[in-house]
Amino acid sequence: MGKLDKTDPVIISLDDLDPGWNWKRPLPAPGHSNVDFEERVDFRRLHRYRVARAQQALQNSDLGALLCFDNNNIRYLTSSVIGEWSRDKICRYALFTGNANPYLWDFGSAAAHHRLYAPWLKKNHCKAGMLGLRGSVPVEANLFSKAAKEIHDLLKIEGVADMPLGVDIVEPPMLFALQAEGIEVRDCQQIFLEARQIKSMDEITLLNMSAAMVDGAYHQIAENLKPGARENEMVALANKVLYEAGSDDVEAINAVSGERCAPHPHNFTDRIYRPGDQAFFDIIQSYMGYRTCYYRTLNVGFSTPAQEDAYKQAREWIDDAIALVRPGTTTDKIAALWPKAEEFGFSSEMEAFGLQFGHGLGLALHERPIISRLVSFDNPFELQEGMVFAVETYCPAADGNGAARIEEEVVVTNDGCKVITLFPAQELFIANKY
Question: Which tens digits make up the pLDDT trace of 214-234?
Fold first, then answer.
């Protein structure tokens, strides 16, 4: 293995890694290419910032190192990605002790590719690794035990083998193999969430760019939302628009309309749109890993009084919440603004979870803070400048003919917040009005 390289340029300070922002200026959403005549996203600064945040969170814990199999945490630490294919394979992993730059074990030839094209990663830290593809390779092949021993040897070299090892997600055979090496395994997902909760201006810019792409997708949906079209056609259209705009992952699109709106099924079908239908969409996608969760409700041709009333109520609930978003506000205060589950047709807060809701956004769809009547009263969380999260509300129409669903993404600034989801939503949008 060799000895720890004391010249390894580990990030040890957050100073100068985030230039900050004058919140009185508009948030930028620049073009996707870098140019020599504007300051845009500095990806190497972004990498250093994320490693420094992870190192700070690790130092604030009682863990000796972080071992991550969660692709979002791997990307946060290493600025590496090999595509959506890897998301459910649990085949990549990274180790970070804070004493050296992260180690990355990637799938087959991807490791050799990183050594050529990712110079911010130390070449001898980019390794090929494969544990079994969720059981497809049997435990008897000893891939788990060999990986656990290699990890343990690195922990010894870096002087943290006697400390607990944090792991975010893990297959049981890998957990057992680490324990067989005498390693005390603990959860580190909360440590990563702590690191990821405050975004740099590079991250906020990427989140804003990602939202801008969905602005465009909604414009195309609005132009094509007509009787005779189908929910799945709008999903296909949005996928096309987003991938052409540069999306690296369209994770999911909900397209819900008419009688399907209440209760919310969280999916899409081949239902045909009809005149007067209320239709809502959620577009979940990412640009450079940074995700959107962006609902809009549109009507087909015209609206009814009951649909308008539902929309006004959902809008009131979301506007009241946004008005409270500022540093120092706690999430229980926002959750208290929203109706109890029983007040809009559900038997419990668990059943209504996700309908009156707030959740952090970043490399993952759900980061800190989580805002809900289900959890926020018992575990209130204080908002801080630099957090980015989505706020979403839902109100079924009184006559059962539709429901309103609205979501806004907000950036917490020093004296309030900025909304970055800009497709018109203050009033119910009528597509192709008659």
Answer: 999 999 999 999 999 999 999
